[in-house]
Recover the amino acids of this structure.
């Protein structure tokens, strides 16, 4: 008997759970063992649906008398009958399915991902080394008295512990969600992302010291941090979730934008007190030879303080 | 130095036994028990209070004061003549002295207590400004009352204040039979004086002590009185053996080191009041006016000539600008540190008590010279950054009640040819318009191995006075090497 089509039952992510060949139309779906495809879904009737092909290559769905009826992706709600095409998904009870003819054109073969080093021990080694170096650089700046254990070694060990917890959490989520732990990939993503944040932080301080920079440079650095954090989370989530990548990206972007928005809400809008002890001025002190700005006279400096009076009297 | 009112401010352990509910005033002036105690902690590396040199100075002080206290006792072990004198003085003056109470409006409960005394037959009473400060700043919350030595109670009206000398003039309705008269001649150092007041609400007492003349390093004249002035005695009179007023109890550094306001200032206040007897509805404008007057007098004295400096490692370090100021120095070069630090600190008693937690009108210089052969220029910069960016801590409720937030500006500034990074921060007093706290911080940027972090702290000054000091200070910083 010639095979005409496949009926594909989908899971909640839209992936194929089971696939049933069709040798003759009509095909009956239901919980009863007399059905052509038996579905163990309590929200489906014993005899729920009958499927026929139409002359133009589409499929006619006819309800056989059920409480929950039929829902197709044209969003018209509960129906008793509908016509669907090959890419449409229909739902009966809590079961989704689609129908594809045997001549359905499948997509091209994809090449294997080339960045396999990310998932190798070499990648992990590089990631850890880069992270430790950038952390060391950060801590080294604090190393102004001879207390190597408390200033350098203990914080580094603590950093490694935090990294392990972070990577461990993602590995666990991945194992539960998609069945893949991807430990090395998570470790590489985390170490490179955090290194980038640490380095950017140092670079920013010294750029500000050297240039006394324009608002635009402030803005660039201001945007860079959420972007890196977003990218880091995106890579982690893509590894653990099979959801649509664009959807992950959009959701994450919105969440981070919302978070940045919330922490920047002016205090008076939400009735929170300003930190009255806080003095805001550029604090970084670097080597004098790094300075690229020209110095101003004492009188210019005092003239520049002229606006402070009106600022504090608001 | 502790003001000697007795209030519901903070607990003093010594009184807790007798007065579970009573609390002594713990208001601090900028100048404290040790020659100076810098409550901020200038550098994080050392504390002046625990410093060896300071401890040594304290010991010398204590030794001197012990000698001063006990020398007369040793010379005249028991003198019935003096005992008799105290009895006579007490009997003559006791009806002129009253207890002054600050009461929470709508209740008869006291918020703080001090002492006061009559100076006229129409019920005028002199006390300290700090005894009435809560009422002067918040007349809607606090009112003034008195308790006489015979137990009689009543209300008082605040007439005039002198924040600069910590004096206030109050009035009780009705006539007054006994009052104190001002002593005409200046008292000589070593003369025996009698201080009266109501310590810790224990009842009227008389304390014998010795006049030690005007104290050094105080912006306004203050009499150093060697005798035990205790909390609650603030505003009480100090009289000669003939019962004439020479001073008003004001503050103590503990261990019998008391400070008195010379009676002359009380007489001036009285004369000013007699000349223009108008009671202000609100005292805040008057407090503000007097503080501005203080600000201008202070800066005028400090800024009339270029700031004196001393040279250290080629850097000009700001030095005492007036005899009332004193400078202290200190070096920390722990073997574990990769750098050495020499610290200079200059201050003097020019700050005025305005209200709880608020002392205004002080000028402080603070300079830290860092040198290091071991640190690279990035880490050396980080070391300077920690000092340059340090913020002091003030309790949140005082901040909310009295201060605006800070506004700052910063730039790379030319300091007589040397480049430095400077930040200037300013905040306003909410209830005293036109007065500011100004903080100037400078770090020199001329070498990789040594630098000076220098700070000027001004509290409660007018804007123009503040900028004049900033100009003076920045003008003094330079490289001489």
């Amino acid at each position: 008997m010639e095979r005409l089509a496949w009926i594909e039952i989908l899971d909640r992510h839209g992936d194929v759970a089971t696939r049933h060949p069709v040798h003759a139309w009509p095909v009956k779906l239901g919980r009863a063992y007399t059905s052509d495809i038996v579905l163990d879904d309590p929200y489906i009737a014993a005899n729920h649906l009958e499927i026929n092909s139409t002359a133009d290559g589409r499929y006619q769905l006819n309800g056989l008398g059920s409480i929950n009826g039929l829902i197709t992706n044209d969003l018209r709600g509960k129906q008793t009958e509908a016509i669907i095409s090959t890419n449409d998904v229909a739902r009966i009870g809590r079961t989704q399915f689609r129908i594809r003819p045997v001549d359905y054109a499948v997509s091209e073969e994809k090449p294997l991902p080339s960045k396999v080093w990310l998932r190798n021990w070499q990648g992990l080694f590089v990631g850890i080394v880069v992270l430790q170096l950038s952390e060391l650089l950060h801590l080294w700046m604090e190393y102004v008295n001879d207390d190597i254990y408390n200033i350098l070694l203990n914080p580094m060990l603590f950093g490694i512990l935090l990294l392990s917890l972070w990577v461990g959490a993602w590995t666990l989520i991945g194992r539960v969600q998609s069945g893949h732990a991807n430990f090395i990939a998570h470790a590489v993503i985390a170490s490179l992302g955090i290194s980038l944040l640490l380095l950017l932080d140092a670079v920013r301080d010294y750029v500000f010291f050297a240039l006394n920079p324009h608002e635009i440079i402030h803005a660039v650095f201001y945007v860079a941090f959420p972007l890196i954090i977003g990218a880091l989370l995106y890579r982690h989530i893509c590894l653990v979730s099979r959801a649509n990548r664009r959807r992950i990206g959009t959701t994450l972007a919105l969440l981070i934008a919302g978070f940045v928005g919330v922490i920047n809400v002016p205090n008076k809008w939400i009735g929170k007190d300003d930190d009255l002890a806080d003095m805001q001025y550029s604090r970084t002190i670097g080597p004098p030879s790094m300075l690229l700005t020209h110095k101003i006279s004492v009188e210019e400096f005092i003239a520049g303080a002229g606006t402070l009076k009106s600022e504090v009297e608001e | 130095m502790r003001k000697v009112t007795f209030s519901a401010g903070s607990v003093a352990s010594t009184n807790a036994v007798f007065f579970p509910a009573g609390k002594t005033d713990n208001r601090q002036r900028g100048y404290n028990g040790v020659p100076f105690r810098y409550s901020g902690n200038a550098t994080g590396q050392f504390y002046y209070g625990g410093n060896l040199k300071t401890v040594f100075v304290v010991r010398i002080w204590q030794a001197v004061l012990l000698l001063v206290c006990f020398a007369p006792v040793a010379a005249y072990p028991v003198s019935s003549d003096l005992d008799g004198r105290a009895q006579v003085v007490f009997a003559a003056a006791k009806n002129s002295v009253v207890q002054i109470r600050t009461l929470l409006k709508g209740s008869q409960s006291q918020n703080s207590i001090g002492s006061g005394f009559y100076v006229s037959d129409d019920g005028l009473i002199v006390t300290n400004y700090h005894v009435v400060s809560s009422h002067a700043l918040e007349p809607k919350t606090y009112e003034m009352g008195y308790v006489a030595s015979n137990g009689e109670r009543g209300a008082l009206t605040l007439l005039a204040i002198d924040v600069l000398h910590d004096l206030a003039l109050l009035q009780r309705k009705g006539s007054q039979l006994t009052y104190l008269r001002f002593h005409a001649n200046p008292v000589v150092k070593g003369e025996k004086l009698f201080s009266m007041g109501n310590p810790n609400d224990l009842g009227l007492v008389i304390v014998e002590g010795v006049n030690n003349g005007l104290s050094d390093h105080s912006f306004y004249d203050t009499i150093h009185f060697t005798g035990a002035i205790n909390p609650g005695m603030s505003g009480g009179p100090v009289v000669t053996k003939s019962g004439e007023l020479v001073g008003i109890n004001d503050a103590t550094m503990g261990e019998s080191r008391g400070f008195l306001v010379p009676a002359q200032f009380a007489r001036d206040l009285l004369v000013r009041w007699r000349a223009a007897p108008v009671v202000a509805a609100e005292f805040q404008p008057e407090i503000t006016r007097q503080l501005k007057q203080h600000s201008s007098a202070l800066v005028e004295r400090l800024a009339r000539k270029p700031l004196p400096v001393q040279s250290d490692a080629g850097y000009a370090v700001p030095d005492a600008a007036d005899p009332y100021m004193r400078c202290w120095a200190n070096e920390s070069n722990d073997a574990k540190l990769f750098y050495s630090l020499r610290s200079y600190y200059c201050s003097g008693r020019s700050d005025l008590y305005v209200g709880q937690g608020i002392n205004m009108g002080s000028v402080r210089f603070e300079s830290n010279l860092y040198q290091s052969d071991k640190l690279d220029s990035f880490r050396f910069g980080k070391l300077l950054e920690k000092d340059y960016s340090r913020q002091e801590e003030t309790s949140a409720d005082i901040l909310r009640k009295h201060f605006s937030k800070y506004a700052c500006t910063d730039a790379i500034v030319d300091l007589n040819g040397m480049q430095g990074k400077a930040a200037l921060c300013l905040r306003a007093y909410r209830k005293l318009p036109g007065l500011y706290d100004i903080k100037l911080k400078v770090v020199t940027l001329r070498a990789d191995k040594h630098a000076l972090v220098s700070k000027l702290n001004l509290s409660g000054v007018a804007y123009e006075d503040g900028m004049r000091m900033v100009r003076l200070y920045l003008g003094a910083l330079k490289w001489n090497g």
Observations:
- The radius of gyration of chain A is 30 Å.
- Chain A has seven helices and ten strands.
- Chain A touches chain B through 47 residues (CB under 8 Å).
